[in-house]
Amino acid sequence: MPRDLTEGSLSKNLLYMAVPTMGGFAVQVLYDIVDMFWIGKISSRAIAGVAVFSSIFWLISVLNEIIGTGSVSMISQAYGAKDYARVNRTIEQTIVFKIFVALIATILLILFLKPLMMFFSKDEEVIAAGIDYGFWRIFFLPIFFATYSIYTALRTTGESKLPNIMMAVGAVTNMVLDPIFMFTRVPGLNIRGLGLGVKGAAIATVVASSVVFVWGLIVLFRGQGVIKITPAGLFKLDWSIDKKLLVVGLPSGIEMFLRNLSNMIMVKLFSMYGSTVLAAIGIVDRMIGLAFVPLMGFSIGTSTIVGQCLGANKIERAEQTVLLAALYNALFLSALVVLANISPQLVIEFFTKDQAVVREGAFAIRLGSWAVLIAGFSISLMSAFFGAGYTKAAMFSSIVGRWFVQVPYSVLVALVLKLPIKFLWFSFLFAEIGEISYASAVFFKGKWKSYRVI
């Protein structure tokens, strides 16, 4: 049942929200790893193609971020203020807007996917894999966007377990379907499959996401705690809420756009070093995702608690929760840094035996683990900004890290000085140092404590 996070033990509330969320994201990351494992059975170029599409896909997901970020602070603060009617109206409006912007994103991706794939790679096999995988993901984008709204609605009202059970069911379904859809014969089991190749991995994702989406809608229509939406509410605009969703979420959307645009630039710079490096990026991204499991758990939990506490005007409690989350993140990620530096080659070899890819990936995982450790602190601090709805701070933090530090450094390394690839990997570490510097200054200045969106 939903929980009032403005009362009781700080540590218990944070773990109550974070641990189930970690479980849900852990299964999702496991799916990403298994997905890349099966794709690697096709070829390292198939891995590269999916990696390039993923960069393009996350750039367009900025439209999802605009509405989603605004909904986190608005729903949690309304819940903290015990304005449950506004909670439900905000949830309804969030779902409607997500579907609308997803349709816009679908049109844009249909028009520009092939030219963008060709911009990042001249390898025909890489391009074909990215397009085969991408078109199926594109057509079902509205379901992908709206499903995240269902998760947000439940989490921001203190329901930590159900959305993560949904995520886990979706991910497990996906993992089961992947080899069946991809191969003529499922490796190791000799079960007849559909033989759809890379396209099959995307279709498996679509099927699993659709199951969770229908499940989530049924839960919200039937009622879960204070949440109970109506079909009529999904077709009735409330401009007072819609405007705030846009205003609060727009800085976060800009932040995500600029962050993902910088990632695309990085992919382009890395592509100058060949398809081997692109394949390494695809694998390393999945593995670094493991480190983000605790980060996402504590981030989502902290944002919800901060929002509820600010809605109830319990400012000191909100600040203490953020600092506690930063401590927990540091403990979790320190352990992961040790593990990442023991034998990273074995991790890469799980996906591919291409020794060139193994060498690049091993170095990147070692360096990336330190970058993620620093990211743990900045993400903890930015959870306060998201809970408060003070999203401009998160936007500027990302701009500093990506556009004042990472991109200029990377252009200098790859285009001007033409240094070896190892120097380019260091850009991720430098970016996180820039981001934590700005986030710390804004957090301790304290303006976010007086910010409200209700």
Automatic annotation (TrEMBL):
The lineage of its organism: Bacteria, Thermotogati, Thermotogota, Thermotogae, Thermotogales. It is a multi-pass membrane protein. One of its GO terms (molecular function) is antiporter activity. Its main location: membrane. The keyword Transport applies. GO terms for biological process: monoatomic ion transport. It is found in: Cell membrane. Keywords: Antiport, Cell membrane, Ion transport, Membrane, Transmembrane, Transmembrane helix, Transport. GO terms for cellular component: plasma membrane. The keyword Transmembrane helix applies. This is Multidrug-efflux transporter. The chain crosses the membrane at residues 14-34, 46-75, 95-113, 134-153, 165-184, 196-221, 265-284, 290-310, 322-343, 363-387, 399-417, 423-444.
